[in-house]
Structure formats: structure tokens, C-alpha cells
């Protein structure tokens, strides 16, 4: 462990620390951030109402729209001259949201990333191939400094130019790879395509995050790269990567949230009411120690559950994988749908690869969903498709492919309750990630 004292702190002590820190942060934002002063006053909340972490639910939420309204520096508690760095969140629409750090915040950022990398299996002296994007995105630079703090050798490759990435992996023999899960798959496929055996690279661990992924992707990455792959989660508003991390020897049991710095809650998507541990809802974070831009009950829009793991090596709470985003929830003919629900069904078919896209269209008032999904490389070979691109005709002429299409359509209908059209694709036809986040949904209704 990178910080054993804190990572294994007894819960009552952790609560005490969280309470002290919450009181301080509430006091600061009330006195330094006009947005919070107005909001507290409007809602009749007094700083003195907050006596411990148990009072957190009395506080109002902060939402992405609030950050946009205060663009760029409305949430600062320090003069701009005290800022050491500024990042932006990778928003795809409208104004970006700005996040700012003091020198102390950067130390905190590196601390939680160092803890995370250690939990992922990394050790001082190992080389880390960092293929998260460098720049305004928090992924590249955030991981970079955390890895240096841990005492690793950083290869700051950033995303893209997959061929070069592979050459560097082969030449430098990095033990740890950091990138999005979709890009890890891209690298694995490229290795295979170039017939490079795993013995020529030296990867042991992959630290994957920045987008939702599943056990099927884990299996494929682990096999394709010869690694133990774990989840790293984070968001710019809270710090960047390193808000939570899955331990490499506790795979599949959730990711530890470093709750001495980031206090998590899961709340009902519609009412905002706190939900019991284990129940799924919107993840909300309060930053307990961030200096430049602390946030109170930041509504992440990410859907997951949180719970303690008595068998775990650390005392901090764990979060389940992100199921999707509340704002990414599709409503198809009145039925709520996350693309990961379709993904789970696809994963049950060994004939299919976990690379898919949902294309949503509307005809009149009727929503239609087409599921484009690639067949796996093995199955493609097995069916002797000989380089053919799959289209309606090739599928109609191949009974196995027709049956497979029908089977998946039926499974979707039975499990999700919506009729979707499945369109099988040959390998690598669906756009792949070049290091960025991959879009699973193409919604053409708007
Ligand atoms: O994606 C920070 C990050 C960088 C995390 C590198 C992990 C690795 P943003 O660009 O602000 O920050 O996007 C944050 O990405 O609210 C989630 O919806 C999604 N996300 C991040 N990590 C995961 C993950 C970075 N492990 C948003 N699983 C979050 C699922 C994730 N979704």
C-alpha cells in the first residue's frame, strides 16, 4: 500500500476525520464562494447546522450546469494567482468545465494516483507506459505525476499512433500500461495483427478507466496483453483519475474510493434522497480537502452502488463498476435503457466481440434501435468468411450468421423487453478508440 495508515484507518477514525474536514470545507465555501453563500442562504442552511459528516445530506447538490454558469472561475476559493494548474473536463457539448488546482491540490492529486497505481500492482522502479491523453484532459498529466511520486519511470506517450506505442512497449519493456479500456483493446488487436508474441513485450498490469467497461473487456485485454487489468475511476471536478481504484488482488469486487479526501454518497436519480449501501443510484462526491475548487455534493450523473467489503485489504468503501450515466440513459419507447445492458447480453456469446454501437433513429413517433456488433476473430475464421465484409447478403447466405443474429435479437427482446435489429459486422469495422473515450451510442433522433 502506498499510504497504509490512511488506507487501513478504522472506520470510526475515518468518520471523525471526514467530519472535521467537512466542517472546514463548508465554512470555506460559504465564506469564499458567492454561489454557495447564495445557495445556502436561499435554502436556509446555516454553516452551524453541519456538525458532522452525518449531516451531509442537509447540504444542496452542485451540478454540472452550476459549473457552466460559473465559467470559468466562479468556484475559486483562492486568488487566480495562487493557481498552479488548470484542466478542463472532456465535455463534448457546450462550454467546457474548468477545474483548477493549487500546489497543495496537485500534491493531493499525486497522492491518490500513487495510492491507486500501487493498488493496481505498480511498484517503484517499474516503467509505466502512459497512453492517456496529455493536455487539458486530467488523465495523462494526472497519472504522470502520481507515477513519479510513486517512484516509477514514466513514458509519457499520450494517445494515438498505435504502431509507435507498440514499438515503445517492445523497446522499453514497460510493466504497467495506463489507457482507456477501448484503447487497450486496440493495442491488443494491433499486436495480434502484427504477430508480435507477448514474450516480446513485458506488460504485467493495465490500469484502465475514463469510460465504462465490463468483465468481457477485462478478459480480452488480459489475454491480449498478458496483464492483470484493473479499474481506475475519476472525474475532473473531483480531482481527475484516482478518485477510486480496484486492487489487483481483489478484482471484480469494486474499486476503493479514497474517502479521506472524497466523500461518496449514492442517491436516488429522481428524488436526490440518499440510498442504502448496495443500492444503485447516482454517485455524488464532496471533496473534503481540495483547496482551489472544493465541491459540495457534486452530482456526477454516474450510476453505480457503494458498499464496504469486510474481506478487503483496505477499510475504505468500494464502488461497483459504472453502469452508465444518468444522462446517457436512453428512453426507447418508454423503456429506460443503458447501453451496458445490451453489452452484458453480447458478452454471453463467444461468437461475438465486445465491440458494438447502438444506432437510435426515429420514424414518426417510433424509436428504432439497431445494434451493430462485431463477430469475434475466431468465429470469423471458423465461418471461413475470407475477408468478406458482412452485409445483409452475406448474412442471409450464411445460416449460422442468420441464426446468431436471431438469437441475439431474441435474447435482447426477452431480457430488455425492446425489439432491436441486430446487424453483425466483420472484425474491426466499428470505429475503435485512438486513446480517447469511445462512443457506444449514436442517437440520431435529435
Ligand atoms: O475521465 C478522469 C480519468 C482519467 C479517469 C483517466 C480514469 C482514468 P473526465 O474527463 O472528467 O475525467 O470524465 C469523467 O468519465 O464521470 C465517468 O462518467 C467516466 N469515467 C471515468 N472513469 C471511469 C471508469 C476522467 N473507470 C467521467 N468507469 C466520469 C466508468 C468512468 N466510467
Taking pLDDT < 50 over at least 5 consecutive residues as the criterion, the unreliable ranges are: none
CATH class of the largest domain: Alpha Beta
The small-molecule ligands in this entry are:
5'-O-[hydroxy(phenylacetyl)phosphoryl]adenosine
CATH architect. name of the largest domain: 3-Layer(aba) Sandwich
Feature tags:
4-stranded antiparallel β-sheet; 13 helices; Rossmann fold; 446 residues; alpha/beta; GMP Synthetase, Chain A, domain 3; 33% helix; globular; binds 5'-O-[hydroxy(phenylacetyl)phosphoryl]adenosine; 9-stranded mixed β-sheet
Short description:
With 446 residues, the protein is of the alpha/beta class. The protein contains 13 helices and 21 strands.
Question: Could you walk me through the main structural features you see in this protein, from its secondary elements to its overall organization?
Answer:
- By secondary structure, the chain is α/β, with parallel strands linked by helices.
- It folds into 2 domains: 1-325, ANL, N-terminal domain (Rossmann fold), CATH 3.40.50; 330-443, GMP Synthetase, Chain A, domain 3, CATH 3.30.300.
- It has 13 helices and 21 strands.
- Strand 16 and strand 17 form a beta hairpin.
- Helix 8 (181-193) runs parallel beside helix 9.
- It is globular, with a radius of gyration of 23 Å.
- The mean pLDDT is 93.
- Bound molecules: 5'-O-[hydroxy(phenylacetyl)phosphoryl]adenosine (DLL).
- 5'-O-[hydroxy(phenylacetyl)phosphoryl]adenosine binds next to helix 6, strand 7, strand 8 and strand 12.
- 5'-O-[hydroxy(phenylacetyl)phosphoryl]adenosine binds at residues 89-90, 132, 137-139, 209-212, 231-236, 240-241, 300, 302, 322, 325.
Amino acid at each position: 500500500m502506498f499510504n497504509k495508515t490512511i488506507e487501513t484507518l478504522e472506520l470510526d477514525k475515518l468518520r471523525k476525520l471526514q467530519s472535521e474536514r467537512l466542517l472546514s470545507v463548508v465554512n470555506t465555501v460559504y465564506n469564499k464562494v458567492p454561489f454557495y453563500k447564495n445557495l445556502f442562504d436561499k435554502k436556509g442552511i446555516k454553516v452551524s447546522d453541519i456538525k458532522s459528516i452525518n449531516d451531509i445530506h442537509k447540504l444542496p447538490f452542485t451540478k454540472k450546469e452550476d459549473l457552466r454558469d460559473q465559467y470559468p472561475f466562479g468556484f475559486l476559493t483562492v486568488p487566480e494567482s495562487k493557481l498552479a494548474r488548470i484542466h478542463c473536463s472532456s465535455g463534448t457539448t457546450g462550454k467546457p468545465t474548468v477545474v483548477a488546482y493549487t500546489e497543495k491540490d496537485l500534491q493531493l492529486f499525486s497522492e491518490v494516483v500513487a495510492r491507486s497505481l500501487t493498488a493496481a500492482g505498480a511498484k517503484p522502479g517499474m516503467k509505466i507506459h502512459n497512453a492517456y491523453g496529455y493536455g487539458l484532459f486530467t488523465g495523462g498529466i494526472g497519472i504522470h505525476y502520481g507515477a513519479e511520486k510513486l517512484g516509477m519511470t514514466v513514458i509519457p506517450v499520450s494517445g494515438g499512433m498505435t504502431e509507435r506505442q507498440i514499438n515503445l512497449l517492445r523497446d522499453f519493456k514497460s510493466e504497467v500500461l495506463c489507457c482507456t479500456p477501448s484503447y487497450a483493446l486496440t493495442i491488443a488487436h494491433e499486436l495480434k495483427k502484427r504477430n508480435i508474441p507477448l514474450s516480446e513485450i513485458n506488460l504485467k498490469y493495465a490500469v484502465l478507466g475514463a469510460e465504462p467497461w465490463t468483465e468481457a473487456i477485462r478478459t480480452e485485454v488480459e489475454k491480449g496483453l498478458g496483464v492483470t487489468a484493473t479499474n481506475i475511476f475519476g472525474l475532473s471536478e473531483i480531482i481527475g483519475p484516482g478518485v477510486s481504484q480496484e486492487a489487483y488482488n481483489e478484482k471484480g469486487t469494486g474499486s476503493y474510493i479514497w474517502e479521506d479526501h472524497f466523500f461518496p454518497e449514492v442517491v436516488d436519480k429522481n428524488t436526490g434522497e440518499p440510498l442504502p449501501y448496495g443500492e444503485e443510484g447516482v454517485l455524488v462526491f464532496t471533496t473534503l480537502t481540495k483547496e482551489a475548487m472544493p465541491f459540495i455534493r457534486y452530482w456526477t450523473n454516474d450510476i453505480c452502488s457503494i458498499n464496504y467489503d469486510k474481506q478487503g485489504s483496505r477499510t475504505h468503501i468500494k464502488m461497483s463498476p459504472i453502469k452508465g450515466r444518468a444522462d446517457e440513459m436512453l428512453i426507447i419507447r418508454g423503456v429506460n435503457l443503458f447501453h451496458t445492458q445490451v453489452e452484458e447480453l453480447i458478452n454471453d456469446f463467444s461468437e461475438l466481440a465486445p465491440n458494438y454501437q447502438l444506432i437510435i433513429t426515429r420514424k414518426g413517433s417510433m424509436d428504432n434501435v439497431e445494434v451493430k456488433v462485431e463477430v469475434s476473430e475466431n468465429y470469423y475464421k471458423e465461418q471461413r468468411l475470407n475477408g468478406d465484409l458482412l452485409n445483409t447478403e452475406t448474412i442471409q447466405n450464411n445460416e449460422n450468421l442468420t441464426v446468431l443474429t436471431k438469437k441475439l435479437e431474441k435474447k435482447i427482446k426477452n431480457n430488455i423487453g425492446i425489439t432491436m435489429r441486430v446487424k453483425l459486422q466483420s472484425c474491426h469495422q466499428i470505429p475503435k478508440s485512438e486513446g480517447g473515450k469511445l462512443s457506444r451510442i449514436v442517437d440520431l433522433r435529435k
